[in-house]
Every structure is written in structure tokens, then in C-alpha cells.
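Researcher: We are triaging several targets before committing to wet-lab work. For this one, the compound of interest is calcium ion. I'm pasting the protein sequence and the ligand SMILES. What I need is the predicted three-dimensional arrangement of the protein with the ligand bound, expressed as C-alpha cells, so it can go straight into our comparison scripts without reformatting.
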Amino acid sequence: MGSNRIATRILASITASFLAVVGLGVTASPASAAFDGHCGNGEFCLYYNTNLSGGVADFSNNISNYAGYNFWGTGGGLNDNAASAHNNGNWQDVHLHEAANYSGANLEFNVGVKRNTLGAMANRGSSHKW
Ligand SMILES: [Ca+2]
Ligand SMILES: [Ca+2]
């Protein structure tokens, strides 16, 4: 009885660990694919320098406030620092906003559009929304 109980408990523990690993694999891969320094299909990508160069911040979702985000792999803050951008999405326009929460002036990026400079929005973007 005692050893059976231990065996059951070990089996339950192994099953739980396996499910945890499977669960992590399912949820982690889309997230890591989005913000990985590579401007993949379906992403809106902001660059530290003009001409889509320098550090990149690549997102597949709306971001309501750039504060707290860095260009991928760097310590450089994204907020008010993007100088060029690319809507590599495939279904809808993206609007880059001057202020957080999709407010203030905005610059529209049609599907597939690359802007090597951002004009009045240079170093001012603080949020974006599809
Ligand atoms: Ca990416
Ligand atoms: Ca701003």
C-alpha cells in the first residue's frame, strides 16, 4: 500500500512535469518569435536608426506604451527613440502614435510599407496599434 502510494505520487509528478513542458512550448514559441530581433512576417518593426538600421524592436501585437521596452538585444529604450519603421504585417494598417495609449499625432503605415525616416514622428513614437 505504502509503495503503491509513492509510485502513484511519482507518476503524477512526472505527468505534471511533462504537461508543464508541453504547455511552455506551446505558449513560449509565438511570443519569442515576435520579439527576437528579426522583422518577421506579420510584425511591426521599429528601428533605432534611419533606413531600417540599428537596433530593432519587432512586435506582432499592439503596444500601448513603449516605456519599459528596449530595442532587441540592447539597453537602448524604445520610447521616443525610433527613427524608421516597417509594417511587415499582412492584413491591416498600423498607426504609430506620438503618445502612449494610441493618442496624440499618428503616422499611418499601410500593409508592407517601409519608412526610412519618420518625419515629424522621428524619435517621438510611444505606442502603435493595428
Ligand atoms: Ca520577430
Ligand atoms: Ca512620445
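Researcher: Any quick observations?
Model: Residues 2-34 form the longest helix (33 residues).
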